[in-house]
Amino acid sequence: MIGVGDLRAFQEDVDLVRGLGEAPDVAVVLGSGLDPVVEALTDRVDVPYSELRGLSVTGPLVGHSGRLSMGWSGGVRVMAFRGRLHCYQGVSAFQASYPARLAFAAGARTFIATNAAGSVSPDLPAGTIMGISDHINLLGDNPLVGWPGPDGGNPFVPMGEAYDPSLLARARQSAADEGVQFAEGVYVAVLGPSYETPAESRALAGIGADAVGMSTVPEVIVARALGMRVLGLSLITNVAGGVALSHSEVLETGASSAAAFTRLLSAILANL
Fold first, then answer.
1. Could you point out which of 47, 101, 137, 159 has its C-alpha 20 to 30 Å from the C-alpha of 143?
2. What is residue 4's predicted lDDT score, i.e. its pLDDT?
3. Planar angle of CA 252, 200, 164, nearest 5 degrees
4. What average pLDDT does the chain have?
């Protein structure tokens, strides 16, 4: 269950974010290697995660700058989380969902979750941006466990359309307009932090996954519990099950694709 101290810490973080200026329209969580996307925001204000009690529970992760940024993309007020919590860092799925809860309390009603993911489909080469149409939760945890939800009681949340079809359609059209390589598919979240074996990659493809990662799902479940519209975007950085795969390879692909990802996000935001 959530204790009084947890609620007090959360409220302190909410007050800090509200003090940064106008309420956000959209919250964006940036996955590994995607931090440069924030450079496109104007009138940006940055807050290190060390000043946010709910996001400073673990040490920094390579590929994540560990900052919350507030700024503008055109006429849209954006709240950008430059890095996230992962269950493999020793936190619960509830703790990993913190960006969604903080964003909602700050005023955002649209939630965009991005991540770096490995492909388990031959139709998804590295460098592709995949719009998430659905997900499979293999984390072994659910962020709604022990959380009374916004209205009290157990939040039995329908997940039939976890990812908003109209937002996915906008992403698809924006990618076509910007000439960005785009696909759609199912994302599966596993605990990690070890990468998948070849056998595991085949098994994941066999249950209907197209891409695999170690994040996103806790945030999305809570965002939907709060009634937020959700768009999920995976940057395919590698083929899962590779023999010599490393985190540096994931970051390199993220860096090389950051310009395309920025163009796509900016176009999506402009059409909200």
1. 47
2. 45
3. 70
4. 89
Question: Secondary structure of 190-236 in the HEC alphabet?
Answer: ECCCCCCCHHHHHHHHHCCCCEEECCCHHHHHHHHHCCCEEEEEEEE
Q: Which residue has the tokens 């390879």?
A: 249
Give the number of C-alpha atoms closer than 13 A to the C-alpha of residue 176, restricted to the C-beta side: 6
pLDDT score recorded for residue 144: 94
Please identify which residue in the block is written with the tokens 């965009």. Answer: 112
Residue 173 CB coordination number (10 Å): 14
Residue predicted with more confidence, 203 or 242: 203
The per-residue pLDDT for 132 is: 98
Q: What is the pTM of this model?
A: 0.92
